[in-house]
């Protein structure tokens, strides 16, 4: 695989169910995500975007085809190896933030570092530094319920970045936010996440933020039917 390619999907299919109730969601996807770029995956609801994202992230197994992430064919990894691979190499940003309500902002961001075995004080210190750089230095000890939606999404972004993963996957990161806050979050994502040795993959239907993409892959009925190269 080309060294500039972070993700390579070849003839990827994904079925759900058995027999007559089987549903084909991915129908032979060929797709690449490049390092140093922000790639958007767009399409109507039900087109297969989130399923493809989940297959790339190793949260779902492909029914057939090959998925290679950062040079690693996922089908060669055991379940435990996939967990370790995700913990080390992937960062996740979700639509609903998925912050732990009983933890402060800094503690939420520190979770990936603690999972890797970093001592708690060092993990909290690194999380606090990153949150400060994202403009939340005054909210380190706030709980999610005390934060606005935009602040919660910045905490979620910090959590995805803190362990310095090489692939960041975002599932509808702006759809729960108003237009101005959504653009602010995308500006932070573009500024802090995109770098030469990292790829960012964003699933979205929010056309308000399409201009942040380097490439836009359009998905329709379980396949990628066209890819646009953006002129940023």
Which keywords apply here?
single chain; 232 residues; alpha/beta; Rossmann fold; four-stranded antiparallel β-sheet; 6 helices; 31% helix; 28% strand
In short:
This protein has 232 residues and is of the alpha/beta class. Helices cover 31% and strands 28% of the residues.
How does this model look, in words?
By secondary structure, the protein is of the alpha/beta class. It has one domain (5-229): P-loop containing nucleotide triphosphate hydrolases (Rossmann fold). It has 6 helices and 10 strands; from the N terminus they run E-E-E-H-E-E-H-E-H-H-H-E-H-E-E-E. It has helices at 49-56, 79-89, 105-115, 120-133, 149-161, 179-193; strands at 5-16, 23-34, 38-42, 64-69, 72-73, 90-94, 167-171, 199-203, 215-220, 223-229. The chain has a 6-stranded mixed β-sheet. A 4-stranded antiparallel β-sheet has the order 2-1-4-5, covered by helices on one side. Strand 4 (64-69) and strand 5 form a beta hairpin. Helix 3 (105-115) packs across helix 4 (120-133), helix 3 packs parallel to helix 5 (149-161) and helix 5 (149-161) packs parallel to helix 6 (179-193). The radius of gyration is 18 Å and the shape is globular. The two termini are 26 Å apart. 41% of the residues are buried.
């Amino acid at each position: 695989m080309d060294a500039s390619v972070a993700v390579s999907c070849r003839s990827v299919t994904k079925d759900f169910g058995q027999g007559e109730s089987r549903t084909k969601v991915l129908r032979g996807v060929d797709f690449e995500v490049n390092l140093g770029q922000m790639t958007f995956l767009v399409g109507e609801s039900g087109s297969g975007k989130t399923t493809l994202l989940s297959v790339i992230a190793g949260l779902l197994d492909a029914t057939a085809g090959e998925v290679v992430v950062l040079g690693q064919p996922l089908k060669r990894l055991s379940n435990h190896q996939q967990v370790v691979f995700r913990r080390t190499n992937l960062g996740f940003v979700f639509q609903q933030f998925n912050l732990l309500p009983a933890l402060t902002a800094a503690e939420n961001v520190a979770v990936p570092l603690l999972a890797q075995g970093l001592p708690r004080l060092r993990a909290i210190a690194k999380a606090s530094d990153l949150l400060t750089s994202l403009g939340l230095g005054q909210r380190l000890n706030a709980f999610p319920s005390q934060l606005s939606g935009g602040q919660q999404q910045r905490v979620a972004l910090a959590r995805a970045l803190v362990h310095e993963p090489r692939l960041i996957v975002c599932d509808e990161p702006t759809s729960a936010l108003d237009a101005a806050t959504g653009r602010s979050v995308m500006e932070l994502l573009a500024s802090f996440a995109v770098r030469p040795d990292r790829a960012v993959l964003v699933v979205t239907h929010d056309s308000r933020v399409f201009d942040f993409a380097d490439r836009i892959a359009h998905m329709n009925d379980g396949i990628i039917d066209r890819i646009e190269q953006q002129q940023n």
